[in-house]
Amino acid sequence: MTRYQVAVTETYADGVQDNPWSVVRDVTAADSAPCHRPIAVKANGHRRLIACGRRLPSDQQCDACRVTVEIVEVRRKRA
Ligand SMILES: [Zn+2]
To answer: Which of 31, 38, 48, 74 is a good FRET partner for 18, with 20 to 30 A between their CA atoms?
Structure first.
């Protein structure tokens, strides 16, 4: 599983009419592992194995390739 830990900071600007919210997402940690079920593709007459995460939709990917985003912190503040 590719896991990203993300900290979210939402800033509100008092008195601003259009789009008073600003959202910043910081990736604080990333963890991954090699693909468990690589798939064969043909390119330029050659067969090669690529990670299933580069080809298949997320619901068909192996546990090593599937992306998980974990929100570890949410801070709300006023500008
Ligand atoms: Zn995979």
So the answer is: 74
